[in-house]
Design a protein that fits this description.
This protein has 163 residues and is mostly helical. It has one domain: Ferritin. Helix content is 71%, strand content 0%. It contains five helices and no strands. The radius of gyration is 17 Å and the shape is globular. The N and C termini lie far apart (53 Å).
Length: 163
């Protein structure tokens, strides 16, 4: 049964890249929980709330990514030991400053965005518009979140380039 109207064998590469993205999101989610629990100092109220908003979003994406893999007729990776092996995201310690936490998250965003590009490229090869649409929305959202975190860590003296 091929209700998706594309070569399911070609979707194997897309599913593989989605599984890496799934692993990335699991480690990213747990890092956000870690930071949410362990933020201290003057930024506590702002970042405690922001990290919760971000991990709530991440857990929704985890489910959507896994369901997309299932839609493609492949199995989502579901063990943390496997996530640790294939993820582009690395764990960090809990005892970090607010700026260090945000810096690590922005670094992770770069890894996740890069992995999303790999997913879109693989999906394009098998004309999988559903995956391209899903991940395209994720890219836009993560870029916006990255901009906001970057603006948070900027100094007032930092300037933007005029057009």
């Amino acid at each position: 049964m091929n209700y998706l109207n594309f070569d399911l064998d070609k979707a194997k590469k897309t599913s593989k890249e989605l599984n890496v993205l799934l692993a990335d999101y699991h480690l990213y989610y747990q890092k956000l929980r870690n930071y949410h629990w362990n933020i201290v100092g003057r930024s506590f109220f702002d970042l405690h709330e922001k990290f919760e908003e971000m991990y709530d979003d991440a857990v929704l994406k985890i489910d959507e990514i896994a369901e997309r893999i299932l839609t493609l007729r492949y199995q989502p990776t579901s063990n943390y030991s496997d996530y640790l092996k294939i993820s582009n995201i690395k764990e960090t310690k809990s005892e970090l400053s607010d700026v260090e936490m945000v810096n690590h998250l922005l670094e992770d965003h770069g890894h996740i965005l890069s992995q999303m590009s790999k997913v879109v490229e693989a999906a394009g090869e098998c004309e999988d518009e559903g995956t391209i649409d899903l991940i395209g929305a994720y890219i836009r959202e993560l870029e916006t979140t990255s901009w906001m975190l970057d603006a948070w860590r900027m100094n007032t003296e930092d300037t933007r380039k005029a057009i």
